[in-house]
Amino acid sequence: MIEFKSVSKLYPDGTRAVDDFSVVIPSRKTTVFVGSSGCGKTTLLRMINRMVDPTDGVIEIDGDDIAKTEPVHLRRGIGYVMQNSGLLPHRRVIDNVATVLFLNKVPKPQAYARANELLDTVGLDRSLAKRYPGELSGGQQQRVGVARGLAANPNILLMDEPFGAVDPIVRVDLQAETMRLQRELDKTIVFVTHDIDEAFLLGDQVLILEKGAKIAQQGTPEEILANPASDFVANFIGADRGKRRLTVDSKVKPRGDDLVLIDAGGYAAGVISAPDGKLATGTASPKSRSISNKTSQAGDA
Ligand SMILES: Nc1ncnc2c1ncn2[C@@H]1O[C@H](COP(=O)(O)OP(=O)(O)OP(=O)(O)O)[C@@H](O)[C@H]1O
Ligand SMILES: [Mg+2]
After folding, report:
1. Contact 96, 133 (CB under 8 A)
2. What tens digit of pLDDT does each residue of 25-39 get?
3. Which amino acid residue places its CA nearest to atom 1 of ligand 1?
4. Nearest residue (CA) to ligand 1, atom 18
5. Could you give the strand order of the β-sheet that contains 205-210, starting from the edge strand earlier in sequence?
6. Pick from 235, 176, 224, 165: which is nearest to 200 by CA?
7. Is 0.85 surpassed by the pTM of this model?
8. 3-state class of 41 per DSSP?
9. Measured from the CA of 42, which atom of ligand 1 is nearest?
Protein backbone atom coordinates (compact mmCIF):
# COMPACT_ATOMS: atom_id res chain seq x y z
CA MET A 1 0.00 0.00 0.00
CA ILE A 2 1.21 3.48 -0.90
CA GLU A 3 -0.17 6.39 1.05
CA PHE A 4 0.11 10.11 0.30
CA LYS A 5 -0.57 12.19 3.43
CA SER A 6 -1.17 15.90 2.78
CA VAL A 7 1.59 16.01 0.18
CA SER A 8 2.52 19.24 -1.58
CA LYS A 9 5.20 20.06 -4.12
CA LEU A 10 6.28 23.63 -4.63
CA TYR A 11 8.97 23.86 -7.33
CA PRO A 12 11.74 26.41 -6.70
CA ASP A 13 10.29 28.81 -9.30
CA GLY A 14 7.08 29.04 -7.26
CA THR A 15 4.94 26.57 -9.26
CA ARG A 16 2.64 24.71 -6.90
CA ALA A 17 2.44 21.44 -8.88
CA VAL A 18 0.78 19.46 -6.09
CA ASP A 19 -1.32 21.05 -3.36
CA ASP A 20 -2.23 19.05 -0.25
CA PHE A 21 -2.79 15.68 -1.90
CA SER A 22 -3.89 12.66 0.14
CA VAL A 23 -4.76 9.19 -1.15
CA VAL A 24 -4.41 5.51 -0.34
CA ILE A 25 -3.18 3.36 -3.22
CA PRO A 26 -4.01 -0.28 -2.49
CA SER A 27 -1.56 -3.08 -3.22
CA ARG A 28 -1.94 -5.39 -6.21
CA LYS A 29 -4.42 -3.15 -7.92
CA THR A 30 -4.16 -0.57 -10.68
CA THR A 31 -4.67 3.04 -9.64
CA VAL A 32 -4.90 5.58 -12.46
CA PHE A 33 -4.22 9.32 -12.20
CA VAL A 34 -6.01 11.05 -15.07
CA GLY A 35 -6.07 14.75 -15.82
CA SER A 36 -5.09 17.47 -18.26
CA SER A 37 -1.54 18.44 -19.14
CA GLY A 38 0.25 20.17 -16.28
CA CYS A 39 -2.12 19.08 -13.52
CA GLY A 40 0.72 17.39 -11.62
CA LYS A 41 0.52 13.72 -12.63
CA THR A 42 4.21 13.18 -13.36
CA THR A 43 5.16 15.04 -10.21
CA LEU A 44 2.94 12.71 -8.14
CA LEU A 45 4.46 9.63 -9.77
CA ARG A 46 8.04 10.80 -9.32
CA MET A 47 7.47 11.50 -5.66
CA ILE A 48 6.80 7.77 -5.16
CA ASN A 49 10.32 6.81 -6.22
CA ARG A 50 11.90 10.00 -4.87
CA MET A 51 12.97 11.40 -8.21
CA VAL A 52 11.11 14.40 -6.78
CA ASP A 53 10.86 15.05 -3.03
CA PRO A 54 7.73 16.71 -1.61
CA THR A 55 8.02 20.11 0.03
CA ASP A 56 5.31 19.13 2.54
CA GLY A 57 3.62 15.98 3.74
CA VAL A 58 4.60 12.33 3.95
CA ILE A 59 4.51 9.40 1.55
CA GLU A 60 4.50 5.93 3.05
CA ILE A 61 4.96 2.55 1.46
CA ASP A 62 3.58 -0.22 3.66
CA GLY A 63 3.67 2.19 6.58
CA ASP A 64 7.29 3.31 6.13
CA ASP A 65 8.07 6.96 5.41
CA ILE A 66 9.97 6.87 2.11
CA ALA A 67 11.84 10.07 3.02
CA LYS A 68 13.83 7.85 5.39
CA THR A 69 14.72 5.33 2.69
CA GLU A 70 17.77 5.78 0.45
CA PRO A 71 16.48 6.63 -3.06
CA VAL A 72 18.69 3.97 -4.68
CA HIS A 73 17.40 1.31 -2.31
CA LEU A 74 13.82 2.50 -2.71
CA ARG A 75 14.00 2.32 -6.51
CA ARG A 76 15.06 -1.32 -6.45
CA GLY A 77 11.50 -2.17 -5.49
CA ILE A 78 9.84 0.26 -7.89
CA GLY A 79 9.80 -0.08 -11.68
CA TYR A 80 9.34 3.10 -13.69
CA VAL A 81 8.09 3.30 -17.26
CA MET A 82 8.73 6.83 -18.43
CA GLN A 83 6.67 9.17 -20.54
CA ASN A 84 8.03 8.61 -24.13
CA SER A 85 9.70 5.28 -23.22
CA GLY A 86 13.00 6.92 -22.14
CA LEU A 87 15.14 4.24 -23.78
CA LEU A 88 18.86 4.83 -24.18
CA PRO A 89 19.28 5.23 -27.96
CA HIS A 90 22.88 4.03 -28.14
CA ARG A 91 22.30 0.81 -26.24
CA ARG A 92 20.79 -2.34 -27.70
CA VAL A 93 17.31 -3.42 -26.66
CA ILE A 94 18.67 -6.20 -24.48
CA ASP A 95 21.02 -3.79 -22.68
CA ASN A 96 18.23 -1.29 -22.15
CA VAL A 97 16.12 -3.98 -20.51
CA ALA A 98 19.05 -5.22 -18.40
CA THR A 99 20.18 -1.75 -17.24
CA VAL A 100 18.72 -2.04 -13.75
CA LEU A 101 20.08 -5.58 -13.38
CA PHE A 102 23.58 -4.37 -14.23
CA LEU A 103 23.17 -1.56 -11.68
CA ASN A 104 22.14 -4.19 -9.15
CA LYS A 105 25.36 -6.11 -10.01
CA VAL A 106 23.59 -9.16 -11.40
CA PRO A 107 26.23 -11.12 -13.37
CA LYS A 108 25.93 -10.58 -17.12
CA PRO A 109 24.82 -14.09 -18.19
CA GLN A 110 21.97 -14.08 -15.65
CA ALA A 111 21.05 -10.49 -16.50
CA TYR A 112 20.79 -11.30 -20.21
CA ALA A 113 18.82 -14.47 -19.53
CA ARG A 114 16.35 -12.51 -17.42
CA ALA A 115 16.17 -9.72 -20.01
CA ASN A 116 15.32 -12.26 -22.71
CA GLU A 117 12.56 -13.72 -20.53
CA LEU A 118 11.19 -10.20 -20.07
CA LEU A 119 11.03 -9.74 -23.84
CA ASP A 120 8.81 -12.85 -23.88
CA THR A 121 6.73 -11.43 -21.03
CA VAL A 122 5.92 -8.23 -22.90
CA GLY A 123 5.31 -10.06 -26.17
CA LEU A 124 8.46 -9.08 -28.06
CA ASP A 125 10.36 -11.52 -30.26
CA ARG A 126 13.83 -12.27 -28.91
CA SER A 127 15.25 -11.59 -32.36
CA LEU A 128 14.76 -7.88 -31.60
CA ALA A 129 17.17 -8.03 -28.65
CA LYS A 130 20.22 -6.91 -30.63
CA ARG A 131 18.53 -3.98 -32.33
CA TYR A 132 18.78 -0.39 -31.21
CA PRO A 133 15.63 1.42 -30.04
CA GLY A 134 15.57 3.52 -33.22
CA GLU A 135 15.16 0.31 -35.22
CA LEU A 136 11.86 -0.55 -33.51
CA SER A 137 8.31 0.67 -34.05
CA GLY A 138 6.80 3.01 -31.46
CA GLY A 139 4.72 0.22 -29.96
CA GLN A 140 7.74 -2.09 -29.74
CA GLN A 141 9.72 0.65 -28.01
CA GLN A 142 6.95 1.06 -25.46
CA ARG A 143 7.06 -2.68 -24.77
CA VAL A 144 10.81 -2.47 -24.22
CA GLY A 145 10.12 0.35 -21.76
CA VAL A 146 7.68 -1.88 -19.87
CA ALA A 147 10.16 -4.80 -19.89
CA ARG A 148 12.80 -2.51 -18.44
CA GLY A 149 10.39 -1.35 -15.75
CA LEU A 150 9.77 -4.98 -14.77
CA ALA A 151 13.45 -6.03 -14.83
CA ALA A 152 14.14 -5.96 -11.11
CA ASN A 153 10.81 -7.70 -10.43
CA PRO A 154 9.50 -4.75 -8.43
CA ASN A 155 6.31 -4.91 -6.39
CA ILE A 156 5.36 -1.45 -7.60
CA LEU A 157 5.24 -0.36 -11.23
CA LEU A 158 4.90 3.34 -12.08
CA MET A 159 3.74 3.99 -15.64
CA ASP A 160 3.75 7.57 -16.94
CA GLU A 161 1.60 7.89 -20.08
CA PRO A 162 3.39 4.81 -21.43
CA PHE A 163 1.20 4.56 -24.53
CA GLY A 164 0.88 8.25 -25.34
CA ALA A 165 2.95 8.13 -28.49
CA VAL A 166 1.42 5.15 -30.30
CA ASP A 167 -1.53 4.88 -32.65
CA PRO A 168 -4.93 3.74 -31.32
CA ILE A 169 -4.73 0.18 -32.63
CA VAL A 170 -1.29 -0.50 -31.14
CA ARG A 171 -2.51 1.22 -28.01
CA VAL A 172 -5.30 -1.32 -27.68
CA ASP A 173 -2.72 -4.12 -27.83
CA LEU A 174 -0.57 -2.47 -25.20
CA GLN A 175 -3.54 -1.81 -22.92
CA ALA A 176 -4.63 -5.44 -23.17
CA GLU A 177 -1.06 -6.50 -22.51
CA THR A 178 -0.93 -4.31 -19.40
CA MET A 179 -4.10 -5.91 -18.09
CA ARG A 180 -2.68 -9.38 -18.74
CA LEU A 181 0.55 -8.46 -16.93
CA GLN A 182 -1.43 -7.16 -14.00
CA ARG A 183 -3.37 -10.41 -13.80
CA GLU A 184 -0.30 -12.60 -14.10
CA LEU A 185 2.30 -10.62 -12.16
CA ASP A 186 0.04 -9.10 -9.50
CA LYS A 187 1.84 -5.76 -9.19
CA THR A 188 0.74 -2.52 -7.59
CA ILE A 189 0.46 -0.34 -10.68
CA VAL A 190 0.20 3.44 -10.60
CA PHE A 191 -0.67 4.55 -14.10
CA VAL A 192 -0.79 8.10 -15.45
CA THR A 193 -2.76 9.15 -18.51
CA HIS A 194 -4.75 12.07 -19.85
CA ASP A 195 -7.10 9.66 -21.68
CA ILE A 196 -10.24 8.98 -19.65
CA ASP A 197 -11.08 5.86 -21.66
CA GLU A 198 -7.68 4.40 -20.90
CA ALA A 199 -8.20 5.32 -17.24
CA PHE A 200 -11.56 3.55 -17.09
CA LEU A 201 -10.24 0.53 -18.97
CA LEU A 202 -7.18 -0.06 -16.80
CA GLY A 203 -8.07 1.38 -13.41
CA ASP A 204 -9.45 -0.49 -10.43
CA GLN A 205 -9.33 2.93 -8.80
CA VAL A 206 -9.39 6.16 -10.83
CA LEU A 207 -8.50 9.66 -9.63
CA ILE A 208 -9.62 12.53 -11.82
CA LEU A 209 -7.28 15.43 -11.14
CA GLU A 210 -7.49 19.16 -11.62
CA LYS A 211 -4.63 21.66 -11.55
CA GLY A 212 -2.43 21.26 -8.49
CA ALA A 213 -3.39 17.56 -8.41
CA LYS A 214 -6.63 18.51 -6.69
CA ILE A 215 -8.83 15.41 -6.65
CA ALA A 216 -12.02 16.16 -8.58
CA GLN A 217 -13.28 12.61 -8.02
CA GLN A 218 -11.95 9.28 -6.83
CA GLY A 219 -13.61 5.90 -7.26
CA THR A 220 -14.07 2.88 -9.45
CA PRO A 221 -14.87 3.57 -13.11
CA GLU A 222 -18.46 2.49 -12.45
CA GLU A 223 -18.85 4.85 -9.49
CA ILE A 224 -17.53 7.81 -11.46
CA LEU A 225 -19.60 7.05 -14.55
CA ALA A 226 -22.75 6.50 -12.54
CA ASN A 227 -22.35 9.56 -10.39
CA PRO A 228 -20.02 12.33 -11.60
CA ALA A 229 -19.18 14.49 -8.59
CA SER A 230 -19.20 17.84 -10.39
CA ASP A 231 -19.70 19.58 -13.71
CA PHE A 232 -15.95 19.42 -14.17
CA VAL A 233 -16.01 15.62 -13.91
CA ALA A 234 -19.12 15.32 -16.05
CA ASN A 235 -17.44 17.39 -18.76
CA PHE A 236 -14.18 15.53 -18.45
CA ILE A 237 -15.75 12.11 -18.86
CA GLY A 238 -18.49 13.30 -21.22
CA ALA A 239 -16.36 15.09 -23.76
CA ASP A 240 -14.37 11.99 -24.58
CA ARG A 241 -17.24 9.55 -24.31
CA GLY A 242 -19.14 11.26 -27.11
CA LYS A 243 -16.32 10.57 -29.51
CA ARG A 244 -15.77 7.00 -28.41
CA ARG A 245 -19.15 5.44 -28.10
CA LEU A 246 -19.90 1.79 -28.56
CA THR A 247 -21.89 1.26 -31.74
CA VAL A 248 -22.77 -1.51 -34.11
CA ASP A 249 -19.36 -0.82 -35.66
CA SER A 250 -17.64 -1.95 -32.47
CA LYS A 251 -15.30 -4.85 -33.09
CA VAL A 252 -13.94 -7.67 -31.04
CA LYS A 253 -10.28 -8.47 -31.36
CA PRO A 254 -8.57 -11.58 -29.95
CA ARG A 255 -5.72 -11.01 -27.54
CA GLY A 256 -4.20 -14.15 -26.03
CA ASP A 257 -7.06 -15.96 -24.33
CA ASP A 258 -9.09 -12.77 -24.11
CA LEU A 259 -11.18 -10.71 -26.46
CA VAL A 260 -10.81 -6.95 -26.51
CA LEU A 261 -13.86 -4.91 -27.45
CA ILE A 262 -12.93 -2.01 -29.68
CA ASP A 263 -15.29 0.88 -30.25
CA ALA A 264 -15.95 2.65 -33.54
CA GLY A 265 -13.09 5.06 -32.89
CA GLY A 266 -10.57 2.23 -32.52
CA TYR A 267 -10.32 2.55 -28.75
CA ALA A 268 -10.45 -0.34 -26.31
CA ALA A 269 -13.75 -0.30 -24.46
CA GLY A 270 -13.42 -3.50 -22.48
CA VAL A 271 -12.02 -6.99 -22.30
CA ILE A 272 -13.84 -10.29 -22.36
CA SER A 273 -11.88 -12.65 -20.16
CA ALA A 274 -11.75 -16.24 -21.26
CA PRO A 275 -12.57 -18.04 -17.97
CA ASP A 276 -16.13 -16.76 -17.62
CA GLY A 277 -16.67 -15.03 -20.94
CA LYS A 278 -17.92 -11.90 -19.19
CA LEU A 279 -17.09 -8.46 -20.41
CA ALA A 280 -14.99 -6.41 -18.04
CA THR A 281 -14.31 -2.71 -18.41
CA GLY A 282 -11.68 -0.97 -16.36
CA THR A 283 -9.91 -4.22 -15.59
CA ALA A 284 -9.39 -7.58 -17.15
CA SER A 285 -9.87 -9.52 -13.97
CA PRO A 286 -12.97 -11.66 -14.17
CA LYS A 287 -14.92 -9.34 -11.91
CA SER A 288 -17.63 -9.14 -14.51
CA ARG A 289 -18.14 -5.44 -14.85
CA SER A 290 -21.17 -4.54 -16.85
CA ILE A 291 -20.89 -2.24 -19.85
CA SER A 292 -24.43 -0.99 -19.51
CA ASN A 293 -23.29 2.16 -17.71
CA LYS A 294 -20.71 2.92 -20.28
CA THR A 295 -23.07 2.32 -23.18
CA SER A 296 -25.88 4.47 -21.84
CA GLN A 297 -23.42 7.17 -20.83
CA ALA A 298 -22.02 7.17 -24.34
CA GLY A 299 -25.49 7.30 -25.82
CA ASP A 300 -26.43 10.23 -23.58
CA ALA A 301 -23.32 12.20 -24.39
N1 LIG B 1 11.20 20.93 -12.48
C2 LIG B 1 10.18 21.78 -12.52
N3 LIG B 1 10.32 23.07 -12.18
C4 LIG B 1 9.28 23.94 -12.19
N5 LIG B 1 8.03 23.59 -12.52
C6 LIG B 1 7.82 22.32 -12.88
C7 LIG B 1 8.87 21.34 -12.91
N8 LIG B 1 8.36 20.15 -13.31
C9 LIG B 1 7.05 20.39 -13.53
N10 LIG B 1 6.73 21.67 -13.27
C11 LIG B 1 5.39 22.31 -13.35
O12 LIG B 1 4.53 21.64 -12.44
C13 LIG B 1 3.24 21.48 -13.00
C14 LIG B 1 2.91 19.99 -13.04
O15 LIG B 1 3.81 19.34 -13.92
P16 LIG B 1 3.73 17.78 -14.22
O17 LIG B 1 4.87 17.45 -15.12
O18 LIG B 1 3.64 17.06 -12.94
O19 LIG B 1 2.34 17.70 -14.99
P20 LIG B 1 1.65 16.50 -15.80
O21 LIG B 1 0.28 16.38 -15.27
O22 LIG B 1 2.52 15.30 -15.77
O23 LIG B 1 1.59 17.10 -17.29
P24 LIG B 1 1.68 16.31 -18.71
O25 LIG B 1 0.36 15.64 -18.90
O26 LIG B 1 1.88 17.45 -19.69
O27 LIG B 1 2.84 15.38 -18.66
C28 LIG B 1 3.29 22.14 -14.37
O29 LIG B 1 2.81 23.44 -14.23
C30 LIG B 1 4.76 22.14 -14.71
O31 LIG B 1 5.09 23.22 -15.58
MG1 LIG C 1 3.54 14.23 -17.24
Report:
1. yes
2. 999 999 999 999 999
3. 11
4. 40
5. 78-81, 156-160, 188-193, 30-35, 205-210, 214-219
6. 224
7. no
8. helix
9. 22
